[in-house]
Records
---
Amino acid sequence: MTEQISSTEQKLIVEMRGIVKRFPGVLANDHVDFKLLHGEIHGLLGENGAGKSTLMNVLAGLYRQEAGTILVNGAPKIFSSPRDAINAGIGMVHQHFMLVPSQTVTENVLLGLDEPRFIMNLPEYDSKIAALGEEFGLKVDPRAKVWQLSVGEQQRVEILKMLYRGVDVLIMDEPTAVLAPQEIEGLFDTLRAMIAQGKSVIFISHKLQEVSAIADRVSVLRKGVATASGVASKGVSRQELARLMVGRDIIFALDKKHCQPGDVVLDVRDIYAENDKGLPALRGLSLNVRAGEIVGVAGVAGNGQSELSQVISGMRQCKQGQVLLGGDTVSNHSTLFGIQHGMAYVPEDRNHVGSAPNLSITDNIIMKKYRKSPILKNGLLDMKAATKLANELKQAYDIIVPNVSTRVRLLSGGNLQRVILAREISGLPSFMVAVQPTRGLDVGAIEGVHRLLLTQREAGAAVLLVSEELEELLSLCDRVYVIYEGKIMGEIMIKGEGQDEALVDTIGQMMTGTPLDQIQKEGVVANG
Amino acid sequence: MAESRSIKQRTPLRIRVEPRLSEPPAWFPAVVSFSAILVALILGGILISFAGGDPIRSYIHIAKASFGDIGVISDTIVKATPIILAALACSVAFRMKLWNIGAEGQFIMGAFGASAIVLAPVLPAETPPWIFIPVMMLAGMAAGALWGFIPGYLKAKFNVNEIISTLMLNYVAVAWVNFWIFGVWTEGGFQMSPKFPVAANLPRLTDFAKIFPIFRGLTTHLGLVIGIVAAIILWFIIFRSRWGYEIRLIGDNPQAARYAGINITKNVIWVMMLSGALAGLGGMSEVTGVVHRLQTAPLAAGYGFTGIIVAWLAKLNPLVIIVASVLFGALILAGREIQPSGVPKMIQGIILVCLIASDFLLRYRIVIERGEE
């Protein structure tokens, strides 16, 4: 095997060829190629679930690829554990830190190493680690216990761990997700210092701004396939990157009938809410949905979409503001209250929220119906009626399984989503919120889900569709709100066929934080 | 390249484990469980022979000592009865992933509650059995439920780890009963209460020997019927009632349960109380069916802990628990024949480890492939 020196002046350090990785029901990486040059910061972009972390976990030795090869400095390598990868000079800092809170920084850095062998001469290592930190601008007290450190400092410990192990390639998985803005600058300085020392960095993110700010070159993954590999970040616009991330490939001739919207069903008024980490996620957000219309929420992942759907469904408390459903306040009530008021909810996470994996399809179908006749009869569950209902829905919604006693964890993503939609829609909701209902599904399944949503619209239900797929929103929705950092940047009416580029560009700008009125003002200025 | 070839030469066959992507056939779990018990017995046999015993003879002895004739079968069932109820108690809590390690304490408190009816006395000694027995059952269940409520409430309101709280409450229960039998209810200074009046004892088979001579000497008591009825009712609660559905949903995925509008906090308390009540009923059955007086040693004999093992062995299925309890009753009984402690306990332990490990085969399959891909 002869290794060609690449034509660029920089040397190739890591090459991944044709990587395939499958999970039950998902093709996470579909023949992905990836090249990392010596001394670059390489941005790896993609939506949630696009396969970025999977690809990098393969490179870091956590996952084993089913096909494809990894070459480091031209030599093929087989990694069966992260230790192998570290020995080859590749280390990863995960999104969720892997530190021991009760131990000091030094102890955490040394954890798992062969040195020191028996006697822990910690002061000596303390000064070594302090010096290493100094070199890369990673300020952290080696004697501090990890639980006393801020999230940003903990991240520095993770980076120190890898540097101490002498890695040449550092993979950072969504490093900015946990950081405050001023900490992000510090992180970027560290990464630049590492480059200056001859190291290479892979920077995983779904945030366009950051990637174009820090990365030399960018690769984009979309649904497990590389849509761009190694483009210079100087030569590509954010809009173009956004398009590569969200894609433009699903254009079905959807039979979208004309519907006259009715009364306002869902009214979200000026809500404020926090995310799981206690940081503000929704900051004065208002929107409404009327009967017989599909309203979209567009935006890059992590701008408050999940929290919005959780506040509406009652799974999350809001600090301020209220959510009205048909005139009744449903926010800060139990989820049961919303269900009883005709709310259907297709959650983002179908495996961990939307279904009980070890229970049967029948048990999952009756999740919101077991409190009432015909499933509840004389205080007991009528399993015959439940099985009958499940079989009817299996027929009506094309759920492809041998029988309804199958546990849902064995279903493919598309089949599971049909089970969830069947359950939600068969409750004849007056309002439905669907979050990423087509994520991870194949083309046929996506079309099925789209048709079901349109049927809801025609039946006079109000539908709120949260999606990162711009094309999906443009083809299904009557109106689209664009969300950015927990606020609505503006509202856009969708006129039907023939979406022009200008509209996509406007939404793209709003998705990166420019309010609609500002765009229009600038437009007027430019035209005038 | 040369390096990787040499690895392949050394290992021509590669064993890989991968998650099952489809449901195994219906007979498969039963076969796996049965094989696991077989493997456990073989491992136990090896250890017996290391200890200088003859494994085959030991096992034959165990079988004879527990199922050899109608007399020992009856004894086996007497041993199995408290285990059935303790295991049912554990199973309902475990189904909701509440790790109630306190069936032992709830069992003892149940015995205490039932005894209090006689000893306080709540009912006079002349009370007919058809009043005595139901009242004592209720008292036993109430006392057990209280002992389950405490950790349940702490878990629900303050997220106190139920493993620790239930375990600690076991010691409290023993100390509490000791206080009463050492002091208040002592029988002439001995650490036990006076014997209960006959009307407060659960009827045994031998009590009917006048009508059916074959029952002479058989100590199987009404507790068995209580256990079986409780198992059937519990099966209905879990698999056919609205509450049972909520318990199963929470146990499998609390997030999904919340999504379905189920109040988890309330269910934690109720399930811990049901669990405690079942264990308490077991204590009541043991004190009124076998011991016939309040005394710590024969009650705190580890039934609550054996119940944990049996609940897992039966995969939390109430009806299978009956069968598994009889198996363990036999092991306990035969154990006394062979050795007061040691080997039989060890076999119990090996069976449990093998069964839990065998669960792996239900979720993963093992693929053996040639070195070259």
Note: The first strand of chain A starts at residue 12 and ends at 23.
---
Amino acid sequence: MESRLEQAAACLPISLRQRLEQLGGEQQRCEEIRLRIGQPLQVTLGGMERALPGSRLTSEEIAMSFSCAAEYSIHTYADSLCQGFLTLRGGHRVGVCGQTAVQQGQVLSFRCISSLNIRIARQLKGTASPELLAQLWETDGVVSGLFLSPPGRGKTTLLRDIARQLSDRGIRTALADERSELAALHNGVPQFDIGQHSDVIDGCPKAEAAMMLVKTMSPRLLVLDEITSEADARAAEYASHCGVAVLASAHAWNWDDFRQRPLYRQLLDRNIFSRIFCLEADRHVVRIKPQGKENTEC
Amino acid sequence: MLKIIGIVLVIGSFTGIGISQRQQFRGHVMVLGDMLSTLDFLSSELSYHLTSIPDIVAKLAQDSRPSVAKAFGTMHELIQRDDNLSLAFKWMKAFRDCGQEIGLDAEDIAILCDLSEFLGKYDAQAQQKSIDYAKVRLSRQLELASAEMKSKGNVYRTCCVAAGILLVLVLI
């Protein structure tokens, strides 16, 4: 089986892994593995779900896959599970759905799991084109950039590749890897190539990790995947005030969608990012320019 | 000359039997102490680092104490196997398979196996409570084993030496 798919599927029972082998040459294109109770095992190829032949999944198979994904250690993943996901070794994210146990408005745990979505993380070196890197560069060094796209278009892959390339050029880079997807540390060793001059804080809330990195590692570039809260925005602002360039991503369908969201409007008002890019459906990166100027493809 | 050698051999071998019996009691006390300190380690890793159970087991498999390395080395091997079996099953199997070999008795093994019902299934605090309970039960076992070592251990040693001397007297 293709190595990344094999790593991501390692948490599945043997019988389900055997079904994935039916994908043959398409294994490398596999983006997600989806498990739903009472449905056949499904995979996502090119954005479309496809059911694999075989019996319908039972609750035991889903529970077994979940336990194995969580390394039989719910306590290790308790925080991320409260947000509905956990990250496998290798940076593959597992989305979790089912019946939750809630206390005082806070999710405590999942009582029963009804579906899992394993997103296969792949490193695509060279995703960041020389033109894009040139856009992030000014005479006095790297400038801050924000990447917008809906989920699944490769924001994390792109950020990782930019970080890798800039780090290999000697830029001291710091990664606040809250979801263990950018570097995917395992026993302290990054599972992805993130460059020679990169430091990572893994599994820590982005805002706290960003503060720690800026204060202790004196980076020239800080990478934050997915700004989702006011605290993240404040951390980006703090880093930027300290003279650190910030590369970040945010969920938005396009520029107009981005501007409509209150959190992101505040982000724009703070003038942290001097470059804003949009990832198009065909994975092209387009730089958004101020009104009156034409957007450029990178 | 032959008589003296025979006397020494008989008394020596009986004393050896007595001492080895005492050593068994001593070994039981030591292995219970090892398991208690292992539970302390487990508890600290769970509460401070939130380390996953397979990672804790892997660390304990490298322990310098033979009893801990044996039990958790076996468990580590079982966990590495790709066989769809649960961690709870592998935890119990490891202690059932090599518990007696490392010097635990049936009651100690049962206490350690009971832990598998909680480990990795709940938050760190809940697991901590189950570990604390197992520690209380194992401490009680340790007290009994220490008392047994003091009373029966000395009796075995003395009786064996006396039996050796008696046999020598009878033979002479």
Note: Chain A has two domains: 3-119, 130-297.
---
Amino acid sequence: MKDSLLSIRSVTKSFDEVDALQGIDLEIRSGEIVGLVGSNGAGKTTLLRLMAGVYKPTNGSVVLSNGHPVSQMRQELGVVPESTGLYSRLTAWENIRYHSRMHGIEDSVAWARTERFAEHLDMKENLGRHTKGFSRGMKQKTALLRALAHGPSILLLDEPTAGLDITSARTVRALVGQLRDEGGTVIYSTHHLAEAQQVCDRIVIIHNGLIRADGSPDELLEKTGTESLEEAYVSLTLEQARVRHEDTEKEGLLSTWWRKLFTPNTPKSTFGGGEDE
Amino acid sequence: MNEKRFHRVKSIAQKEIIEFARDWRTIMAIIVIPLLMFPLLFILFPILLESEAAELDALELDITVQSNDFPVELAQNLTNNGMNLTFESLPDMEFLSDPGSEIERVRNGSLDALLRFDSNNETWSYGILHLSTSERSNEARYRLLTTLSEWEDAEVRERIAAGGLDVNSTLDPLRWDGDVAQGDVATSGEQAGMVLSLFIPLVLAIWTYSSAIQPSIDMTAGERERGTLEALLCLPCTRMELLLGKWLAVAAITGTGVVLQICGLLFAIGYLASSSFIGIPSLSALSIGLIIVSILLFAVMVVAFELALAMRSHSVKEAGSILAPALMLILFPALFTQVINLDGIEGYWFAIPVVNVLLALRELLMDRVIVEHVLIWLLSSMVYASLAAYYASKQFSREDIVTSLS
């Protein structure tokens, strides 16, 4: 059994009335590539934000192996959020250096690590360019380099291949594979089962804020008695997925009334007829 | 603050300033405009006015004079003042100012002004028709009034002399003895301080607030909208460090803008001073020190307040629609403060937010250091600055700031 790096214990996260996550128990072990799989609104991003210490759990705890809350040990983490979070008026290297400095890493050390991974991601020539003109793939690669530059114990990737072309997605997956070979620990959020199967040692299926399954691809097939992961996923997530909640902006009564005042009625459907008759 | 924290705060501030400075529009807004605003206003504007006045002076104006007995000397004076005269007989009317049938001639510009002039034994009556929306017509009226006044003055003097009286002692029986300016015991430095105290606090308050709007929004709601804040919140820095770093950056940018604007203002005043319009204010070291402290406290409060309001917003648009009208919170007290009489002012004025710092600046620019006032504005400003910083820290600690519209 590998050493535990991160423990999520009976975690519930609520936003107003909605429980985004309910009673989550998860153990992340050293050297694992864990795939968080679920539809939009399942709770993947909320779980990643809890792991990154950006959110505090409503109940339960998220602690590192030494017992410290993750928010106090952020230098152990490398995070690539869904939006990449790059500053367009800074160069790729300046973006990376900014985060490394915040981690207390010397520029020379960060540069050495960046150079090594940039070679692998075919980004070496672009490190001095402003990120404004970067493609989605280049931004994702830069965000990956930024997350790796300080040598984190755990890498959290939120939909790292979303919106990427086939070649870029493949490069990102290859890098994750390389990290696994070097003993790195990666939490990989995706809604592509095939990708999770290809990249991850372990798949955690989340649906409507609950963990529905947790195990290797073979274990999931065995547990559900299905022949493919897709069938397994469908059998585990039969009820309709809810909408994404934490980003849903709350609106005051006045704002709602004002907005509706300037919203014309949608034309009634002409298909199927009958209703108006 | 330990070394690691200091380095993180420094890194945040440094990055924000670099990123902000790389936008040329920012450089224009923060450096070029503040630097040039007052010199343009104080130097170029008078030059423009002078050239416009010279252009008006050079105009030959068409005047129609309606009179049955117009003095020859007056006609000569009018001609000498650049007016071409056309004489007509005076029509019958109750009052000389009635436009009558001449209204169209003045309105359509076929003449610049019409002078009606009538003699009644020992006195004269007159009326001028002009079009106030026409520059030429206004100039014609002005020249007519000036020439008539001079002619009347000469007539008065002539009549006094004809009556056997001394003209000067009759017209000016009470006179100031000596140089009028010598009667003011205030030094030129104090007078300059008085003049500056009427607009420097106003400029400082408004510019500090308005130049902090854009960076405050960019570094908070802008980050949130662009989705860069989430990555930042995953870093090993506290929200307070984040606030402090961003505050330093906004304060540095705003400070640069305000300092440059003051430099531009002083340059413009220096230019005017060389033409004896205004002197250089004389300030003690204590006054200068207190001015710096008051500005610093004001900046802490304003920048923290703006960062807090911007951080509450989900988007740049939302933040802009909150921060721009909030300028009124500075503008009204700033204008109000200009009319408050500083002599014998009650101490409580120095405890009112915004007003306190502006009044303090007014007093200090006049080199008045009144201990009671200084203590009140110093303590109240520290309280307000702390409250604003606390409010900002609460906003930065909100969990929902991680969510992004993008």
Note: The interface with chain A takes residues 4, 7-8, 11-12, 15, 18-19, 22-23, 226-237, 314, 399-400, 402-404, 406 of chain B (CB under 8 Å).
